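New to this. Help decode the following:
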Amino acid sequence: MPESRGRKRDDYTPPPEKGERKVMKLGSAPWVAPTMVALFVIGLAWIVVYYIAGPSIPVMKDLSPLINVVIGFAFITGGFIVSTRWR
């Protein structure tokens, strides 16, 4: 029985270089981690201070209890949003 001929493959030639390549910077910006931690701490501190000394502080006394908790959680949520940029 006759054998089929094998296909002739061309030799591999690498693509030509396009000049200088830019090195991709790994990691995150230097402001991301401190901002993230600061937002977490501020949010937690706001909630803790409200529950411990809320009636003594004029700004917290004027706001309703729900608003004070929402402000604390807003800072914490901001920390989570900033944490998505951290690598």
